[in-house]
Amino acid sequence: ETEPQQNQPTQVEPTTPLDTVNQEPAVSPLQENFERSARTLFYARPHYATVLGVDESLAGGKYNHRLDDYSPEAEAQLRQQMRLINDKLAHIEVTDPVDINNQKVMMNLNRYFSGHEDFDIGYIDMWMGLSPFVVNQINGPLIDVPNFMATNQKIKQAQDAEDYLQRLAGFGAFIQSVEAKLAADNAKGWIAPKVLIEKAIAGLEAFIAPEPTAHPLYTSLSTQLDAMADVDDEQKSQWLSQAEQHIKEQVYPGYQSVIASQRALLDKAPTTAGIWAQPNGEAYYADAVKMLGDSDLSPAEIHQLGLDEVDRISNEMDAILSANGYPDGTVGERMLAINDEPQFLYEDSTAGRAELIADLNGYIDEINQRMPELFATKPPYEVEVRAFPKAREASAPGGMYTNPALDGSQPGIYWINLRDIKANAKFDLKTLTYHEANPGHHWQIALNMAQDQLPLIRRIAPYNAYVEGWALYSELVAKEMGMYDGDPFGDLGRLKAELFRAVRLVVDTGLHHQKWTREQAIKYMAEASGTVESDVVAEIERYMAWPGQALGYKMGMIKIAELRTKAQEALGEQFDIKAFHDMV
Fold first, then answer.
1. Which residues are within 8 A (CB) of 260 and not within 5 positions of it... i.e. 6 or more apart?
2. Are 144 and 116 in contact, with CB atoms under 8 Å apart?
3. Which of 481, 365, 485, 492 is nearest to 425 (CA)?
4. Mean pLDDT over residues 179-205, rounded?
5. What are the two backbone dihedrals, phi and then psi, of residue 407, each rounded to the nearest 5 degrees?
6. Angle subtended at Cα 31 by Cα 27 and Cα 33, rounded to the nearest 5 degrees
7. Using CA atoms, how far apart are residues 542 and 232, in angstroms rounded to an integer?
């Protein structure tokens, strides 16, 4: 069900897959339901409508002043509405090949955004679909909504400022809705692992540690008001005073209340690490494997696949290490040792961090020059590199991508975590850049968003194995383009990144299917991958919060590489790599 690209005949000429982008399509009999999917989703998630700059008609009206409602009633309504749309779509007969394709994929996306009907716990995330813990250390409404507000909510005129302030004023009710969902889930015995609750408390405390006037929700407004020439200083001062008051009276007390309820859970929280320990957790994981790993393999088969891939990639790394003067010890031990060598490290200073950012921009410029060799269609959106804000460093991953606004007013952003400079060895960063920017996440996601003949929900489709599989496949493509020629340590960094994703197959299934402990998973990952401990701990705890998400990278890459081989064998001399990449 989640692999429509496999079973459907190609309906578009492979040389011109995107040439209909600006043509006016005929109105499809499915169109009304596609628009209802968008309205339902964006009405429930107004913060994400702001991120994308969605037209108000596709978000149930004005939205920049509203905050999301995560109460049990609102969550149930969202899921039910998405399922009802699917019931309607299933009963519409279509014959046009484009309609048939849209119908299948949109029904699958509606399923992605409504979760499994046996599970009313957790919340619907705009990136992952059903996410099991509404409060955790790495994502969730209490982290994502304020972060997107501070980063994406543009304030260019008086109404924008009023909308922003109305959102701040609504934080008390927004947080209460999250607390209500948390309490409903906890009452069903669905409680996050104890270590995740401890880390969530630390993250929430860090979020409200600054003075209100130093908080990102305040400074974002302040910076944007400074740039508004047509508003007098008295008005700006009044708005800032209101923002400070809302942060003091709505935001901070709300977060303190959540911290207190999280503390109260610590004695009841499981000390186990896997989702198997939750009520009906085995069935939950089976669905996560299907939705986020996009695979029909069993967890046991994926575990074995991971072990086999770890062996294969480790042998390739051993050959490079031995050839470059590092013959002794396990691959993991040697990777940890070279990670400490000064030649591979940036200086732990402001200047060192600035040099790192400059290098990332250089890698983007360099690959952009070469992209036309293997890629035909270029996305119309820009990408830029930014360091994670200090308040996010502790829980954020090493690198991350956030997509542009639909109208291009906000670029795609490649975020880099500068918390631990040793976690950013120079030999790792080429590969991370190809993964997060081009030809990886930015190239694919921006091209998806640009296809305005598709239903909006397809343009933003976050299919985990497709998106992450493409980004990992992009690392291989960069190797095939010669980006690592004469740079054995850069290629070692690429293999290390691929090894990391193979290890993920082992530890995700280990934690959630084979009942590994957190410590077992940390030990395996550290020894197999040679990754610094600060990263390994954050990674394992991420997999604990996001069952199945870590499977998407390798499973998706393997699928794309399989499809490429299939196309090469079928087309022979006529195979065109640019057409293949456009098709994907």
1. none
2. no
3. 492
4. 97
5. -90, 5
6. 160
7. 46
Q: How far is CA 227 from CA 155, 156, 168, 233, in A?
A: 9, 8, 21, 11
Sole residue written with tokens 């077992």: 520
Give the tens place of pLDDT for each residue, 357-386.
Answer: 999 999 999 999 999 999 999 999 999 999
pLDDT digits (tens, 9 = 90+) for 428-471: 999 999 999 999 999 999 999 999 999 999 999 999 999 999 99
Using the CB atoms, write b or e for 222-240: b if 16+ within 10 Å: eebbeebeeeeeeebeebb
The whole-angstrom separation of Cα 365 and Cα 82 is 42
Neighbour tally for 362: CB within 10 Å: 13
**Would the CA dihedral through 138, 142, 148, 151 be positive or negative?**
negative
Closest by CA to 472, choosing from 558, 383, 376, is 558
Q: Report DSSP letters for 42-56, one per residue.
A: HHH-HHHHHHHT--G
Q: Would the pTM count as exceeding 0.85?
A: yes
CA distance 537 to 288: 22
- Residues in a beta bridge with 386: 415
N-to-C CA span, the chain: 18
Given a cut of 50, whether residue 16 has pLDDT beyond it is: no
User: For 287-307, how does the pLDDT look when each residue is reduced to its tens digit (9 = 90+)?
Assistant: 999 999 999 999 999 999 999
Q: Give the pLDDT mean for 141-159.
A: 96
State yes or no: cis peptide before 439, omega within 30 of 0: yes
Mean pLDDT (whole number) for 271-286:
98
Alpha-carbon span 362 to 533, nearest angstrom: 28
Give whole-number Cα distances, 362 to 185, 414, 579, 583, in Å: 47, 13, 27, 28
Q: Are 218 and 168 in contact (CB under 8 A)?
A: no
**How far apart are the C-alpha atoms of 501 and 539, rounded to whole Å?**
11
CB 131 within 8 A of CB 125: yes
Strand 129-131 to 123-125 pairing: antiparallel
Q: What angle do CA 126, 131, 137 make, to 5 degrees?
A: 100
Tally of CB atoms within 10 A around 256: 14
Q: Structure tokens of 410? A: 């906000």
Of these ranges, 51-55, 393-397, 545-549, the one predicted with the greatest mean pLDDT is: 545-549
Could you tell me the two tokens for 562? 């399989």
**Is the model's pLDDT at 7 over the cut of 50?**
no
3-class DSSP assignment, residue 387:
strand
Tokens (6 digits) for 347: 């200086």
Please choose, from the candidates 271, 250, 166, 146, the residue with its C-alpha nearest in 3D space to the C-alpha of residue 206: 146
